[in-house]
Amino acid sequence: MNNTNQPLARLRAALGRKQLIAIAVVLLLGGAGTAAILRMGAGAPANAGHAEAGGHDDDEHHGEAQGHKPHAEGEGHGADEGHEEAGEVRLSAEQIKAAGIVIETAGPATVRSTLTLPGEIAFNEDRTAHVVPRVGGVVEAVPVALGQQVTRGQLLAVISSPTVSDQRAELQAAQKRLQLARTTHEREQQLFEQRISPQQDVQQAEQALREAEIAVANARQKLQALGALPESSALNRFELRAPFNGVIVEKHIALGEQVRDDAKVFTVSDLRSVWAQISVPARDLTQVRIGERVTIRASAFDQSVTGQVAYVGALIGEQTRTAQARVVLENPGNAWRPGLFVNVEVAAGEAAAAVAVLADAVQSMDGKSVVFVRTANGFTPMPVELGRSDGKRVEVTSGLRAGTPYAAAGSFVIKSEAGKASASHAH
């Protein structure tokens, strides 16, 4: 054995076979790592570009996995013929005709702006009487009932009154004195003509006659002031009668009741004419003038009537800060009953609207005002912003262009169909 192999022999002798195998593996792994580092340093730019391209591939694969397929050029939502818009109600021409849907075109119009004020129907105070007996006494008869139609002069109640008895007694005494004074005057006149009595006796008798006549007239006028007839079957009988044709709307009297002379026992009103009392805020007084035409609409039922403002109050209430205006209404059918709340519409002016639709075309969906616009397949709800309205036409400030066809009548049918469609999609 030469000198060169001696160290190796000694190393092999010192280490076992297993240790030698482990050292060889370590040396091989170290050499492979060094070669890989050298290759990465030499090809970094090219590999970086390749890595970037690989990243795009991953994203594309990810997008396809999620179902997001990219659109080709010229391809998009709604491009396909027959695509249904969101919220569209599909109706054929036959269905539109059968439902009575009328199609109009949105366009410019003149909108008459109106001012709506609260009001209430009240009695026509010029044709309403609060009947009081004007004498105290006990009620003997009440031949009428509440709500009864009465005519002028019709008997309402009979009251036994000491006051009326005294007045009739006074009238009868005055009539007796008048009769005696007239007889005395005639006798003195004859005696004077026969030159038996002096002219002074004739003059005194004539004065007594005139005083008796005044006493009788005074007693009659007292009874007339009380509303009592001069002659009656009983001195104390007082008859309370209707002042004019009307309806008994209040009754506060009963048989056997003791009534005072100032008690309001009946209220009689001619309901063929009533008042519409209007509360007008101070800021709107310039638009409510005497003679102004107004429209009165009942809030409880579908009925309206036109009239003229007959009175505008000069004072403003301290609490309400409003003035009272009045419209006199003819009420032949008694449809306008006192106490009924109404809305009074006063014309406030005219204005030109660039785009307007019929008021019946506007519907409410999800808290928004919409107009159903005509499409190829039916109708689509178009949210709109509204402006002035005169009850017939409504100004559209945004959301609709002039010339757009829309459902002017029967839009509620389309709204109903849209609600059914929404319910079916929800399920």
Can you tell me about this structure?
This protein is elongated. The longest helix has 32 residues, at 162-193. The protein folds into three domains: 90-111 and 350-426, conserved putative lor/sdh protein from methanococcus maripaludis s2 fold; 115-125 and 271-348, Efflux pump adaptor protein, beta barrel domain (Elongation Factor Tu (Ef-tu), domain 3); 131-268, OB fold (Dihydrolipoamide Acetyltransferase, E2P). The chain has a six-stranded antiparallel barrel with strand order 3-12-15-14-13-16. The chain contains seven helices and 22 strands. Helix 5 (162-193) packs antiparallel against helix 6 (199-226). The protein is α+β, with helices and mostly antiparallel strands and 427 residues long. The protein starts with a helix and ends with a helix. The chain has helices at residues 5-14, 17-42, 44-66, 93-98, 162-193, 199-226, 411-426, and strands spanning 89-90, 102-105, 107-123, 128-131, 137-141, 149-150, 155-160, 237-241, 246-251, 258-259, 266-269, 273-281, 293-298, 304-312, 322-330, 341-358, 362-365, 368-374, 378-383, 385-389, 393-398, 405-409. The model is unreliable at 1-5, 34-38 and 40-84 (pLDDT under 50). 33% of the residues lie in helices and 33% in strands.
Helix/sheet category: alpha+beta
Helix content: 25-40%
CATH uppermost class of the largest domain: Mainly Beta
Q: Any low-confidence stretches, pLDDT <50, length ≥5?
A: 1-5, 34-38, 40-84
Order of helices and strands: HHHEHEEEEEEHHEEEEEEEEEEEEEEEH
Remind me, CATH topology of the largest domain? OB fold (Dihydrolipoamide Acetyltransferase, E2P)
User: Assembly state here?
Assistant: single chain
- Spell out the CATH superfamily of the largest domain: RNA polymerase II/Efflux pump adaptor protein, barrel-sandwich hybrid domain
Named CATH architecture of the largest domain? Beta Barrel
> How far apart lie the N and C ends?
98 Å
Strand content bin: 25-35%
Number of helices: 7
The largest β sheet comes out as: 6 strands, antiparallel, barrel
Mean pLDDT: 80
* Physical arrangement of strands within the biggest beta sheet: 3-12-15-14-13-16
Q: Nearest-angstrom radius of gyration?
A: 53 Å
